Amino acid sequence: MHRGRPVRRRRQPTLDGSKPQKDDAVEMDGVIREAMSNGFYRVEVANGHLVLARLAGKMTKGHIRVQTLDKVRVQMSVYDLTRGRIVWRFRE
């Protein structure tokens, strides 16, 4: 059990030496490979990695539907590149 002042953790610096901000995001284009339960999707991004993503709130509010093999843009946090949020669906 920890008592006293909480321990402050330092953020890791990025490649250019600045600290990563909370709103920094990595955006990549990908293809939806699998639709899973609870609105999750398995997306294969451009470099071949699989990302577990869900629809962004504005896409849900706008009733934008996505299916497998749709091309999408995924935003990922700099802290966890295995999860993301689908922010755009490209028209074909």
Low-confidence region ranges: none
Domain module count: 1
Shape: elongated
H/E element sequence: EEEHEE
Largest sheet: 5 strands, mixed, barrel
Supply the CATH architecture. Answer: Beta Barrel
Helix content: under 10%
Helix count, per DSSP?
1
CATH class: Mainly Beta
Structure description:
The chain is mainly β and 92 residues long. The chain has a single domain, classed as OB fold (Dihydrolipoamide Acetyltransferase, E2P) (Beta Barrel), CATH 2.40.50.140. 5% of the residues lie in helices and 40% in strands. The protein is built from one helix and five strands, in the order E-E-E-H-E-E. It has one helix at 57-61, and strands spanning 25-35, 40-45, 50-55, 71-77, 83-89. It has a five-stranded mixed β-barrel with strand order 1-2-3-5-4. Strand 4 and strand 5 (83-89) form a beta hairpin. It is elongated. 14% of the residues are buried. The model has no long low-confidence stretch (mean pLDDT 86).
Features of the shown structure:
single chain; mainly beta; OB fold (Dihydrolipoamide Acetyltransferase, E2P); 1 helix; elongated; 92 residues
